[in-house]
Amino acid sequence: MADFYQNGIVTTLHNLTDRPLEELEQELIAFSKVRPMSLVLPSLFSELERPALATIVEELAKVPYLSEIIIGLDCATEEQFAYAKEYFSGLPQHVRILWNDGPRLRALDAQLAEHNLAPKEPGKGRNVWYCFGYALASGKSKAVGLHDCDIITYDRSMLARLMYPVANPLFNYEFCKGFYARHADGKLNGRVARLLVTPLLKALKKIEGYDDYLEYLDSFRYSLAGEFSMQSDVLNDLRIPSDWGLEIGVLSEIYRNHSTNRICQVDIADVYDHKHQDLSLDNLDAGLAKMATDISKAVIRKLATQGHTFSPGKLRTLKATYYRMALDFIENYHADALINGLTLDRHSEEDAVELFSKAVMQAGETFLENPSATPFIPSWNRVQSAAPDFLERLYEAVEADNC
User: In which region does residue 109 sit, left (phi positive, over 0), alpha (psi from -120 to 50) or beta (all else)?
Assistant: First the structure.
């Protein structure tokens, strides 16, 4: 059972009573008459071949309040796109699939590239960005949610709790982040959040002193959660990072554009598990090592835009401070695991910390080498300024693909 503690500058909505799903969904049906809701699902075609997505689709078929489900499909041939249309055809909601590798969307992407506005890297960030563009183009919703397609422990109560804060017209929240406990199969998971993000933020606060942005990020119970919801208007100004810094980057953009009293986080699950990445001890450009580097770069870049300065000496201090704090956190997590009957491999935890400390240093060095790099995809407001009819053409292309 969750506590009720508010210990940051972002409102935390707890799961205090395990309220019946039926009650939540009845309220969401009522809310949907005022604030229609859409769900974005970014997916590789390979997810359609795994059991997790099959369970998600089965659960979503029972959701009564969604106006639209938008699926971003990556790495799919024409035959696989046809299979995907059949795969999702059982969903009763209005469903549209963005075939990102299809000729129509590729042609639109090439037109954006002429304006230097197209996403430069493939991946989840690009996928999500185009899905958000379609959500704006379709105009079917006033609130949009997003979650991944590899959630092994999925049930539709996650979505209900995720959408509720931005769907309820009595609330003033513009953005909501989901959080949950990361354990499964008797093990404590979530290494990047536990052993990189939390100690990195604590180390930066120790070195830099009080900073609103660091305090804001540190207020989130699980800042790397891929589940969030927002008012549709938020999508216009949102710049999407194109690398593994997606979740931290989105939080940074929300911080830049909106007051913290319009931002919340909500407990959406007692247990959560999904597909895991390899630690990648020997390659900083793959697996969790790449993720750790991109996340660290996202934080450092954001601090730099707020007037913080970085030098080789400060980076060495940051690495040393982070490393000591991360090792101390292992002790905390080890005790937490034991009292809950979970296992924690301290050797592999220390391996992760050593790897992440290298990633922090590499992220800082990369920033110093190219401080003007901008990994963000432009906002949809900027796209519409450069190409006023682009969203209309995107809508027409997706409709043509789905006919």
Answer: alpha
